[in-house]
Write a structure and sequence with these properties.
41% of the residues lie in helices and 14% in strands. With 397 residues, the chain is of the alpha/beta class. Helix 1 (5-12) packs across helix 2 and helix 2 (17-32) packs across helix 3. It binds FE3-S4 cluster.
Length: 397
């Protein structure tokens, strides 16, 4: 790779041990993918934060990078941690796990990483714009950044995202190059969608179509979407198709400058309903865990939960997962007190997938197709995928 004088200095260790290690990671990655240069990044989002995923080896790597003098050079935030750093006891997290999780966050903090832990960083101030080069790693957020915001990022691993943070660089390959952002298949959606669960179902259908080809989808036929629909769709498309970019006609910023690909797949309402049904292997009676906030909830969704729960009592363990910054807005609006009075629990800066809750429940109800996938694959729960409001109502049964 052709490196600048400053990048060579980083690689040779003149800017400290951690920066050297970071540049070594990026050069190795660049050489694997045939990048010719490094490019500057303006924003980083790092996955690999929950101790449940990192384990001892991951914690040791982070501690070494912190001890080696690593410092974030650009705006850097984190993916959800394995617990709510303040209310982990209420959520049933064990003290030995909490101690390890605190050490992970402490290592990031020593590297000047902003330890807000969310998969929707674009809702809490880490918001890149059209054409900005960034290095993000949470799959749903990568898909959102590339597709909805029009920023450019590959799906980074935790170490490569940290390396970008400590150097301010990423190798120029993949989605950083315009020629790699063109769609290959058009999907014509012949159904009206409104619920987040339906957009999750659509992500599953399209994701399964492109899973092996990795073709970038161009989606037509969607009449209207909300931010919440798009974040649900991104999470599902990334989970079931490994997709990091899509274009949606009339909605995403690059779509209208692109000609729809000739190869076309039609998606019917029946196919969508079948995708949703395929994630429903639990009965209502079996549900003992309810979770909303995959990806993390917006303030608008929290307001909706508060309206539905006002004056009611939940009968099941019910987690509201969101960024702490969003929860703090909910506190000020009075939503938190309504929700907590109903018996639901905020799980800030964490989620039902990265928290260590394997086997703790029988069946989970949610509006998220992504959460269903991991609840089954990682946590061995049965699942029920329902519209948002119905999930809240079920929690009260
Ligand atoms: Fe976010 Fe956890 Fe879902 S990281 S996208 S809430 S699995």
């Amino acid at each position: 790779m052709l490196l600048t004088a400053e990048e060579k200095e980083m690689l040779e260790g003149a800017q400290g041990r951690a920066t050297q290690k970071a540049m070594q990671i990026l050069v190795a990655l660049g050489e694997i993918y045939g990048a010719e240069h490094m490019i500057p990044v303006t924003s980083v989002q790092i996955a690999g934060v929950s101790y449940d995923n990192l384990g001892e080896a991951g914690l040791q790597f982070l501690s070494e990078m912190a001890e080696g003098g690593g410092k974030a050079r650009v705006h850097t935030t984190l993916n959800p941690a394995g617990m709510d750093i303040e209310s982990w006891r209420i959520l049933g997290i064990q003290p030995d796990f909490a101690e390890k999780q605190e050490r992970v966050l402490d290592a990031y903090s020593r590297m000047d990483v902003i330890t807000t832990c969310t998969c929707t960083p674009y809702l809490t101030g880490n918001l890149p714009l059209l054409g900005e080069h960034i290095a993000w790693s949470e799959s749903s957020a990568v898909c959102y950044a590339n597709s909805v915001l029009g920023a450019c990022t590959n799906r980074e691993g935790g170490p490569s995202a940290l390396a970008s943070s400590l150097t301010g660089r990423t190798p120029e390959y993949g989605f950083h190059l315009v020629e790699n952002r063109h769609p290959r298949v058009t999907f014509l959606v012949d159904a009206r969608l409104a619920e987040t669960s339906e957009f999750g179902g659509l992500g599953k259908v399209i994701g399964e179509h492109i899973q092996s080809s990795k073709a970038i989808p161009y989606i037509r036929g969607i009449q209207a979407v909300t931010l919440e629909n798009l974040k649900s769709f991104c999470a599902s498309l990334a989970t079931y198709g490994g997709a990091a970019l899509f274009h949606m006609e009339g909605i995403t910023p690059e779509a209208d400058s692109i000609k729809p690909p000739a190869e076309q797949v039609k998606i019917s309402k029946i196919e969508l309903e079948a995708a949703i049904q395929s994630l429903n292997d639990a009965t209502v009676a079996e549900v003992d865990f309810v979770s909303l906030g995959c990806p993390h909830l917006s303030i608008h969704e929290i307001e909706q939960i508060a309206q539905l729960l006002e004056g009611r009592q939940v009968k099941k363990e019910f987690w509201i997962t969101t960024a702490r910054a969003t929860m703090q807005i909910a506190d000020r609006c009075g939503y938190t007190s309504i929700i907590e009075a109903a018996g639901a629990k905020f799980a800030a800066d964490t989620c039902c997938v990265v928290a260590p809750i394997q086997g703790r429940f029988t069946a989970m109800a949610t509006d998220s197709a992504k959460a269903c996938y991991y609840a089954s694959a990682k946590n061995q729960f049965k699942t029920l995928l329902l519209p948002f409001d119905e999930v809240v109502r079920l929690a009260c049964l």
